[in-house]
């Protein structure tokens, strides 16, 4: 009896550590309506419904919030994501700090005026060890938070200098078509003590899902997205294995 309890407890502790869960941050650079008026994001709703994990969709009207008036299709589609439980990040380009802080802040404002995403995605994030560049992202993060955005993600697309982890909530440390990254590569990123919730990866051009590799990657990446899409815009379709991916990410 006593021994049995001991082993039962041990087994559930081991199960618990295997059952680590990761979320996903998805570049959803897809117009929300198909040509014949259907829902172009349906596969995302289906995957989330099957396996509700911490899901963030990066919405991108036109390399940012767009300069034209509100697009009703985007308004409705973002509202539907939020109603389902999927959160959104407004896409903003920083051009490795070459864009002025004022221009980036104007995009952050415009996202709020037009579409009210949950958070902000800073694309083309610098990753060199330069004080002024670290300060630039710190300022932008502080501004976004002051405007009510709850989550910020920066995308250098590669390993970065640890102190950038003090600027935004999460950093994409791998965005590449060179195969699914090794667990060693992901785990060797120094996060300045922020841990796995601050790390995400975006491998693309992955023809079939290696569920074992994804399961291993979960130990150091709190957010994982994988797609078979490739080319100039590898984010303009969703992969056929999306629901399977959500299942592997679920704890
Ligand atoms: C990024 O900055 C470089 C250098 O200033 C400039 O040549 C390029 O046009 C910029 N790209 C975008 C997309 O703004
Ligand atoms: C991705 O896989 C789906 C089938 O799951 C296929 O229809 C699609 O053409 C593939 N996309 C690319 C870009 O290879």
TrEMBL record:
Keywords: Signal. This is Spherulin-4. It comes from Orchesella cincta. It comes from the Eukaryota. The keyword Signal applies. The keyword Signal applies. Residues 1-19 form the signal peptide.
């Amino acid at each position: 009896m006593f021994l049995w309890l001991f082993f039962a407890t041990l087994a559930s502790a081991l199960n618990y550590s295997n059952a680590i869960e990761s979320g996903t941050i998805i570049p959803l650079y897809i117009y929300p309506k198909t040509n014949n008026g259907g829902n172009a994001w349906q596969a995302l709703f289906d995957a989330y419904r099957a396996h509700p994990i911490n899901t963030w969709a990066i919405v991108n009207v036109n390399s940012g919030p767009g300069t034209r008036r509100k697009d009703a299709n985007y308004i409705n589609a973002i509202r539907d994501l939020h109603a389902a439980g999927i959160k959104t990040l407004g896409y903003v380009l920083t051009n490795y700090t070459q864009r002025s802080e004022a221009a980036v802040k104007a995009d952050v404002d415009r996202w709020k005026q037009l579409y009210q995403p949950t958070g902000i995605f800073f694309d083309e994030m610098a990753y060199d060890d330069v004080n002024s560049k670290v300060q630039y992202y710190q300022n932008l993060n502080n501004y976004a938070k002051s405007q009510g955005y709850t989550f910020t993600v920066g995308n250098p697309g590669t390993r970065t200098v640890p102190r950038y982890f003090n600027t935004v909530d999460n950093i994409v440390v791998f965005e590449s078509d060179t195969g699914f990254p090794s667990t060693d590569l992901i785990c060797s990123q120094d996060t300045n003590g922020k841990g796995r919730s601050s790390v995400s990866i975006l491998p693309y051009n992955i023809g079939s899902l290696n569920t074992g590799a994804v399961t291993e990657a979960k130990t150091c990446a709190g957010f994982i997205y994988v797609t078979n899409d490739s080319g100039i815009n590898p984010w303009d379709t969703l992969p056929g294995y999306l629901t399977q991916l959500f299942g592997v990410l679920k704890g």
